[in-house]
Each structure stands twice: as C-alpha cells, then as structure tokens.
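One-letter codes give the sequence; backbone shape is given numerically. An example follows:

. . .
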Amino acid sequence: LLGRNRGEEEKVIIKVPQDANVDELADILHENGAISSERYFKLYAKMTKDDDIMFTQGSYEMMNNMDYEAIINYLQSNANRVDTVEIRFTEGMTILEIADKLEENKVCDKEEFLSLCNSDEFDEDFTFLSSGRPKVSQTYYKLEGYLFPDTYEFYQGEKATTTIYRFLNNYEVRMYYTKQR
C-alpha cells in the first residue's frame, strides 16, 4: 500500500492501454512489479477514487516503490509519458507527406488525420482559418499551408485532433504573436 517491502528499488515500464480501468491496470502493474497485490490496489482505488477513474494511454517509466496514490496520479498525466517521438517537418512538405510521417512514427492514423485536414472542426478555434484563406477549390486540403514547418514532439497513439491542434497553435503563435513584438 505504501510502496515498501517490494524488494530492490528499480525502474519499471508500464504500458497503459487505451481506456484502461482499475482492474486492467492492477493486472499490468502487478505483472511489471510495480505493486505486490492486485486486490489491495483495486480496493484502494475504489475506496478513494471515483468508480469511473480512467488512466491516460501510453508508456510510463516509474519506480517500483511508489505508493498507490502516487501511482494513480502518475498514470493520469501525459506529462509522465515516455512514449514520445520528435519529428521534424520541413518547409514545402505536403499534407500527404506529413500524414505519412505521422503514421510511420505511430503518432496518429493517416486517414483520420487527412479527413480532419478537410473538416471545419478547427474553424471556430482559429479565426485565421476563415479569414484570408484561399478558396477551397485552390487547395487539395483545407488546412494546406497552415501546418507550420517545425520540429514537434508528439505522443505515440495520440488523437489526430490533438496533433492538428498542435500544428495550428504553432502556426498561430509564429504568424501572429511573433509579429507583434
């Protein structure tokens, strides 16, 4: 319960699947030596947390002597994930090339990414998408020209929506906020 008496202190890698619940997580933690009792972990989680507690998908490197509260908090934060990938996108890359690179690096699904690049999903959040944009018939994808070339750090298995928000936020900062200085 308190993370003591689990043998020698060492780092363990925990891979949390998408939509993992407490029962699944307890099995994973036990298999990897992060907890000694699945039953006590489940009981602790159910007594101290909501019934619908969810954990963030991804890979985490953690110590095997963490207490249950620390484990639960640790596995609910993207900040602790170790399954990140850094990708450099150069000027002149097409959206198809970007989508290929994202899928090759297991960031997101290419087809979902391309579909979102032709959607109106981001228009309300980014006013630059509706003002001064070339007519859609002049571009192959609606977001063509708005995925700013740069080096990005992504989580593997993240949602394509999150990936596009990262690109568009960077575009907005580079094109609008840096000009004001």
